[in-house]
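Quick start: what a row looks like.
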Amino acid sequence: MDTEAQQTERDRSSTPLGSGREGRSRSALVARITEQVPGGRITLGLLACLVFFLLLSTFVVKPFQIPSGSMENGLRIGDRVLVNKLAYRFGARPQRGDVVVFDGTGSFGDADYIKRVVGVGGDHVVCCDKEGRIQVNGRSVDESGFLYPGDGPSSVPFDVEVPDGTLFVLGDHRSVSSDSRDHLGSPGGGMVPVDEVIGRADWIVWPYAHLTRLHRPAAYARVPAAGGAHG
């Protein structure tokens, strides 16, 4: 009898959590909620998907539709890109050549913009050298791989020092792009605060024919760090 009693106690202690009365109560609660929601489980499933995508858009990636031709030919009007909102979190910073989406309030205008980073904090950016190329920290940059065909690096000369914590940005279609060059005399001097950067554009996802992974061009790879030796 003692052995049987001990076996019974072991059987009770090994009952899985969520089974028995507790499991039935939870199932009944779910069933009541499902019954009270129009559409039942389908509606709950759709709501769960909506919450998931809202969280994804808020914290991870954000779709952005290209509003103008300022980044042609790489990004065309109507293209949709995915903006990586985690790219510059956890200590990472925008780098020269990145295509970034930023809030232009206080620097460009009350809207979000997409441009290419040409200078980061501390950089000395000049246009142009004897061959008509932009120089960053004394190094000429060959931008022919992404500039709009027929465009030069800039028809407007400039010579700027980029303050720490800001970015100097230009569009790839320079002749139609309103970018840092056009705001040099405005508050902020045409510089974009890093804190206003929403994220890095990593993919063209629509239309499907334009599906492309956006890579940082190698054109800026030889640019020395701010304050480094000029070449």
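That is the whole record. Residues 2-58 form one domain. Confidence is low (pLDDT under 50) at residues 1-19, 49-59.
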